[in-house]
Amino acid sequence: MKSKKFSLSDLSQYMVIISVVLVFLVFTVLNPSFVSAYSLQNLMVEISPLILLACGLSFIIFTGGIDLGAGAMVSATCVISGLYVSQFGNGIIPIMLVIGAVLGLLNGCIVAKLKIPSFIVTLCTQNLWAFIALTLCPNGSVAVDLSFRKEIGWMTSKLAGIPIIFFFALVSIAVLFIFQQYTSSGRAIFAVGANIRATRLAGIDTDKVQIMAFVVSGACSALAGALYAYKQKSAVPTIGDALTLSAIASIALGGTSMAGGRGSVLRTAIGVVTITAITSGLNMMGIDPLWKNIIIGVILIVAVYLNSDTKGRDIIVK
Question: Which of 20, 188, 193, 284 has the fewest Cβ atoms nearer than 10 Å?
Fold first, then answer.
């Protein structure tokens, strides 16, 4: 009998767990305060909006698509939330949910109905989201009115030592996981990513499925923007500039196939924890911020390689 040849891609199913354990181990050895209660609470606050962004974006990648404008959408909705939360109060959160769904619907309809690759569509529409953010805040960040700070402060306050914003993220993960795992619509998203032609022949409206993925991603991106406004207590027009790379790296690190058809929002969430822990650890060590994106880029390349089907065991027919 031939012995089975080992490949690094064999580690892909365990990579997300191995990565998060190694990251916490290394940074704890280098700086024991990395796992202090204060640091862990800050980490929970940092990962919460990014978890929403990455988990929502995962659904587009499950279909084999991509959204390069997710970070810009976060910037636009962060600005809208920060500027108008004083008028609408906490009602700004459901308003952002609706706005994000509508923006996602726009992207999805262009991709599905006009048959334009999502890469091109979102590369163009991200400029529109960035334009909205910079037009509303032409002079940079605008702080939420001081008289209203206490009313939005509940999001970053703590319950049993855990930030409420983190509970918000956990509930969102649970809802997305149930949608992904236990609904026919969620399973159809994976089917489209695995083999869109076979899915269409099976009688599933693939256009509707693709649009749905963009709507889910848009809603999650907009909620992430609202959370950033609550977290920063201000409208920040550039908050999402580097978030798309972090989100995609988290998704890839979580074992999602960039070709679509395979992945999990739970694993994406763990990928977010890993990526955020790396950036937090580098900050605590005083590493030049310019290196952070380089390191995340390297992680993305390695993650995509480990998740690629180098042995042809999981051939996906588009």
Answer: 284
